[in-house]
Amino acid sequence: MAVMGIQLVVSLLTASIMQRMAPHCSFARWLLCNGRRQNDVSESKPLSVPKDIDLHLETRPISVVDSLVLHYFMEYQWLIDFAVYATGVYLFTEGYYCLMDVQKEVNIGVLWCLLTVAFSIKVLFGMMTHYFRSEEGGERSVCLVFGFLFLLIAMLVLVVREDYLEFGLESGFSAAFDNMEMFVRQQGWEWSVPVTKLTVKLGLVGICSFVGACLTFPGFRLAQTHLDALKMTADKPMIQILLHASFLAPVVIVLMWVKPVTRDFLLSAPVGKENVQLMSSSTYNSVRLWTVVALCVLRLAVTRYHLQAYLNLADKWVDQMKKEAGRITVIEIQRKVSRVFFYLTVVTLQYLGPIILTFHLTLLLKTLGDYSWGFYPESPGFSPATDTAPSSSTASSDDEEDIQVTITKITAVLNAIRNVFTPLFYRGLFAFLTWWVAACQIVTSLCGLYFHQYLVSS
Fold first, then answer.
1. For tag attachment on the chain, is the N or C end more exposed, with fewer CB atoms within 10 Å?
2. Which helix (H) or strand (E) element contains residue 50?
3. Using 50, 70 and 90 to split pLDDT, how confident is the model at 397?
4. How far apart are alpha carbons 18 and 23 in whole angstroms?
């Protein structure tokens, strides 16, 4: 039996194309090199100038050469390009699974999505450690405070009943632990379910706290660029509507898993004196997936407005400087203006990182949870635990026998994983993680709005 088959060939081909095309064609560079940076003023500059000088910054397009000196540029290009190629591999595997009967093959698109999620968290964690190394120490305190805050919120969320937050964690964990208990007893090992459940939940709470801390400053930055983008597009009401919709996207995602607000209403909507079912339960699951994907695409579509709003901070700083008294060195002006540009990729990662994380968690939820995009019926989401012992087979030669034994062992391991961690488990886990990332963005962006709109201005 082919474990991956043609999927492995496509995956290797994609990896080769990504490596060879990166220096010549990169979506990350295209996205970055379409803004206009603030440039220095003139060629002959005195040593110092009055702060209220009539200074106007020139703008020029960002070139590829300019982008090479930016902080975290290599991490930025790698993550964005890898996410694009991972999405392409996932689309191929989705079409492949729809057209071919290959349910026993390993879905390699899932592996690409898992790697994208891991790389996203790694990059966000790397930027958080950058704040921890700050000399002032204020950023470190903010990360720690929000980490403990999200720890408390996660513990509260995990005790909410499924009647209100329909993740399916309890049913998923119960199915996984039952299957694990059966598998462990088959191996002759001892098993303690209550201790294991508590350990897993504590581990999940720790992961939630860690993810929340990593998303703290991206949320604060989103609030800042959102306010600046609204001011920048004051004469474009349609763009402002899109910016508001993009900012509120995490709120919609969170509400999609609040059962009394969405599922119960759509499955039993009050119309007059009767209740009308607007859609089936499986249709709602598909609509929820499409809604999350559409909101991620919307946030991606307004990326340039947020990035340009950030670049305009240099001009905003110059306007603030003109209101002050005294003198300032030209080198200090250059340093302040250049610093805005040098951190452009950091801001871009803070904006795109949560989007990539949410999008690929949704893809994992759909595939591993055996949901449907609506084009074909979804599976019930569970499968019974079966005996995972490898079957015996004969071979005509020693080499063929060794190959057959290796394939049999790999197949047995994969079957064991499938039988223990069923789609019901993955539905609960990835639904919760998708919801949690959106909830963290709501908390941090709202705190960022309050900070930038009231505390900074005062």
1. C
2. strand 48-50
3. low
4. 9
Question: How far apart are alpha carbons 92 and 38 in whole angstroms?
Answer: 42
What dihedral do alpha carbons 425, 426, 432, 438 form, nearest 10°?
Answer: 180
Report, in this order, helix, strand and coil percent for the chain, each rounded to 5.
Answer: 70, 5, 25
Query: Residue 72 in 3-state DSSP?
Result: coil
Q: What is the 3-state secondary structure (H, E, C) of 200-268?
A: HHHHHHHHHHHHHHHCHHHHHHHHHHHHHHHHHCCCCHHHHHHHHHHHCHHHHHHHCCECCCCHHHHHC
Higher-scoring residue by pLDDT: 324, 311: 311
| Angular region, 105: left φ>0, alpha ψ -120 to 50, beta rest | beta
Burial 248-263 (b: 16+ CB within 10 A, else e): ebbbebbebbebeebb
Q: Could you give the CA distance from residue 24 to residue 419 in angstroms, rounded to a whole number? A: 44
Residue from 251, 254, 161, 167 nearest 204 by CA: 167
Q: In this model, does residue 409 exceed pLDDT 80?
A: no
- The chain-wide mean pLDDT, for the chain, equals 84
pLDDT(366) > 90: yes
CA–CA separation, 51 and 320 (whole Å) = 9
Give CA–CA dist 82/20, Å, rounded.
Answer: 13
Which tens digits make up the pLDDT trace of 95-121? 888 887 766 677 889 999 999 999 999
Helices (H), 369-422: 398-420
User: What pLDDT shows up at residue 351?
Assistant: 95
SS3 55: coil
Please, are residues 215 and 445 in contact by the beta-carbon 8 Å criterion? no
Closest CA to 212 of 445, 456, 455, 441: 441
The Cα 10–Cα 350 span in angstroms is 31
Token pair 């995956």 in the structure block, residue: 11
Q: With a cut of 80, say whether residue 213 has pLDDT above it.
A: yes
* Start-to-end CA span in the chain (Å): 68
